[in-house]
Amino acid sequence: MKNNVIPLIGIVTSSKTDGSIAGNGPLFIEIQKRLISLNGISFVFLPEEVKEDYINGYIFSPEENRWKKGCFPFPHLVYNRIPFRKAEKDEKSQKLFSKLKEKKIPFFNPCFIDKYDLYQLLKNDSILQHYLPETIPVAEPENLLPFLKKFGGIYLKPTQSSKGKGIVRIRITDSSEIQLEGIKIHENFHSFDHFWKEWKEELLKKSYLAQEEIRPAKYNGSRFDFRILAHANRGEYTLTGVGIRLSEDQDVTTHIPAGGKFLPYQLFQSNEHDEFFQKIISNVGNALSSRFGFFGEFTIDAGLSETGRYYIYEVNSKPMSFDEVDIEGKKIENLCLLFLQHIEMNENPPFPAN
Predict the structure, then answer these.
(1) What is the SS3 assignment for the chain?
(2) Per the confidence metrics, is the pTM higher than 0.85?
(3) What is the mean pLDDT of each run of 10 residues along the chain (354 residues)?
(4) Range of the domain at 263
(5) So what's the pLDDT on residue 248?
(6) What angle do helix axes 271-292 and 115-123 make, rounded to 10 degrees?
């Protein structure tokens, strides 16, 4: 930093319905501890606490092991950890983002990603398009039924959700019955029309997409997926870590909140897997940053089919904490180094401005 100014990182989050502060408190604490060791400092704040010339927020004191309220100048960089899509879209948050742009204060990650927008974006990439399951928006039965018949089974996913919430799989039988399975539901319908009548309101109200079902490779009889964590590093995107998520109670999704479990990547590691990760990371990061604004981190949910083909299922703009201690530690380290790097490079950023 110029003039020996201490780098100041603002972490923006939102409040819960009861007024308390939401967000990943343990992550914020670990960021503060590591930043202090790098001669930086961070504070947490809400969009509504941003004033004209200062911000009211909270700073964690490792010495006192507690959060302290304070008044802060505008930071050199803002890390967006608003955990709710609705909160990110509201007027207070949008006003904050506009103010940051006016003051030329860099911020990442700029937004949650709509799943169908993501599909369309990655489909335009000559490399990534080969790893995408075929996907269409759910708008009318005239399109959905032929799509289901084409693949025999499809996933229905809310375009704006995370952690596997709302995902169901439907399959069509030889007798044209529809079998539906979700994380906690099983339903059978005697026809597609019957299914559509029961699910139409849900599918159209929340905006769903339909994605071809990939028959997954299995480990000890259970499906598994890759959770790939990447961070920006001086204009490039590098692999931070890979975790394995294994389905247990159901095989619709491998998300841990939905009953999945984690296994060490070392059990699965191969040159082919490693090459796949390296092949897609930069393309995904560059596509996101060119379309939405700078993404300093993201995770990719990817999988392997029973025929040995790789697929990209989703990209997450605000990664959850990793259960793997080593990956979570690397995440904190890479984030803090990225904060300081990005502040230094702000006068000549390698990525498009937000």
Answers:
(1) CHHHCCCEEEEECCECCCCCECCCHHHHHHHHHHHHHCCCEEEEEEEEEECCCCEEEEEEECCCCEEEEEEECCCCEEEECCCCHHHHHCHHHHHHHHHHHHCCCCEECCCCCCHHHHHHHHHCCCCHHHHCCCEEECCCHHHHHHHHHHHCEEEEEECCCCCCCCCEEEEECCCCCEEEEECCCEEEECCHHHHHHHHHHHHHHCCEEEEECCCECEECCEEEEEEEEEEEECCEEEEEEEEEEECCCCCCCCCHHHCCEEEEHHHCCCHHHHHHHHHHHHHHHHHHHHHHCCCCEEEEEEEEECCCCEEEEEEECCCCCCCCHHHHHHHHHHHHHHHHHHHHHCCCCCCCCC
(2) yes
(3) 75 88 92 96 96 95 95 96 93 95 92 94 97 95 95 94 82 94 89 95 92 92 93 93 81 58 91 97 96 94 96 92 93 96 66 40
(4) 115-131+216-345
(5) 66
(6) 110
Shared-domain flag, residues 224 and 320: yes
What CA–CA distance (Å, rounded) separates 195 from 179? 9
- 263 found inside a domain: yes
Give which of 115, 256, 84 is closest to 183, Cα–Cα: 256
Domains contained in the chain, number:
3
CATH (domain of 30): 3.40.50
- For residue 196, is it within any domain? yes
* Alpha-carbon span 74 to 281, nearest angstrom: 32
| CA gap 135, 116 in Å, rounded | 8
